[in-house]
Design brief:
globular, binds pyridoxal-5'-phosphate, 3-stranded antiparallel β-sheet, alpha/beta, single chain
Length: 369
């Protein structure tokens, strides 16, 4: 069994994907071909955003708004230590300071109460200037934007939604990608909407930010390709990847619904044996991962071994919280700083999940557990 079976999806979409790729091979506009603007239009419509900028990866989709806003040395950027490194890496890349905030013990997303406490702490006790919050829609579940956006308004902070895992999720009908001043998503193959390489997208309703992002995507170009008005990057997505995404987008909503059913089947069959994912009322998860909590670390190892022996792959997202990563050692984080994140890191593991997982496989996995 595979952890995420992408071949099943390809067999369903083969004709569409192959012909989309062939079209690119024939027109020859491998970079910034017509597929890019078509994809951007469709993604913007999908999320209900005014603008979408398709880019080279989820990491660049996070980095580029920081560049556009001029986030830099002396700025505090609030995020969670229980996420993929890219979320906080981009903060350090622009020489701003990541300020971690612990997570909610049920949703695993940034805890709004602790967020406000941390903002106050930074204002009163440090020289740093609070500028931005990067909430993460972990495992596909949107963060608590109702509370986060209130806090952002109160303290005049920008919000960048890390929707790398959340794309396809929603809160009361509002799609992930629509929250905050801008949102970033990833099209890494294993994400809910994935391409066949690297890719990502940025969403915003802000015209000025949009113009800057378009420029930053191609080395900060100005009135023409060889006039440069700001420092940018090579942040383009390939036409071939856009063609793959256009095909996949055509069945994405059906897949999101299939994901709800798979998650529901897992939760029913596990019947409280382990702590199953929590979805608050009015929220829909994109189910980037289906993650369970074992009772303690050795219990997790035991379950993972049992599944492995039966040919079932599992994964741990994430084994080490970011404040304890060597890459962030200069921030001085230590064990005990973020007890909820640390505890979840010791107990969490994810089981196979994709929209085409069959009921007998789900039964098999749940019986083993
Ligand atoms: C995957 C991921 C990213 C980075 O996306 P890439 O496309 O791999 O660069 C950022 N944040 C989170 C939460 C992710 O899961």
């Amino acid at each position: 069994m595979q952890f995420i079976d992408l071949k099943k999806q390809y067999s369903i979409l083969k004709e569409q994907i192959d012909s989309g790729i062939e079209k690119v091979l024939n027109h020859g506009m491998y970079i910034m071909g017509p597929e890019i603007s078509e994809l951007e239009k469709k993604l913007a419509d999908y999320t209900g955003r005014k603008h979408c900028v398709a880019v080279s990866s989820g990491t660049d989709a996070l980095l580029m708004p920081l560049l556009a806003w001029g986030i830099g040395p002396g700025d505090a950027v609030f995020t969670t230590p229980f996420t993929f490194i890219a979320t906080a890496e981009v903060i350090s890349l622009v020489h701003a300071t990541p300020v971690f905030v612990d997570i909610d013990e049920k949703t695993y997303n940034i805890d709004p109460v602790k967020l406000e406490e941390k903002i106050k702490y930074v204002v009163e006790n440090t020289e740093l200037k609070p500028k931005l919050i990067i909430p993460v829609d972990l495992f596909g579940l949107p963060a608590d934007y109702k509370e986060i956006l209130k806090i952002a308004e109160k303290y005049k902070l920008l919000v960048l939604e890390d929707a790398a895992q959340g794309f396809g999720g929603e809160i009361q009908g509002i799609k992930s990608g629509k929250f905050g001043d801008a949102a970033a998503t990833s099209f890494f193959p294993a994400k809910p909407l994935g391409c066949y390489g690297d890719g990502g997208a940025i969403f915003t309703d802000d015209d000025e930010l949009y113009q800057k992002l378009v420029s930053i995507r191609v080395h900060g170009f100005g009135s023409d390709r060889y006039t440069h008005v700001r420092i940018g990057i090579n942040g383009r997505i390939d036409s071939i990847q856009a063609a793959v995404l256009l095909a996949k987008l055509s069945i994405f909503d059906e897949e999101i619904e299939k994901r709800q059913l798979v998650a529901q089947m897992y939760t029913e069959r596990l019947n409280g044996k382990l702590v199953a994912p929590f979805t608050p009322d009015g929220y829909k998860s994109a189910w980037a991962q289906y993650s369970l909590l074992a009772r303690f670390e050795e219990h997790r190892a035991e379950i993972q071994q049992k599944l492995k022996d039966a040919g079932i792959p599992t994964a741990i997202y994430y084994p080490i919280p970011l404040h304890l990563q060597e890459a962030f050692a200069q921030l001085g984080g230590k064990t005990g700083d973020f007890p909820v994140s640390e505890e979840i890191c010791r107990r969490i593991f994810s089981i196979p999940f994709h929209p085409y997982l069959e009921e007998n496989d789900i039964d098999y996995i749940c019986n083993l557990i």
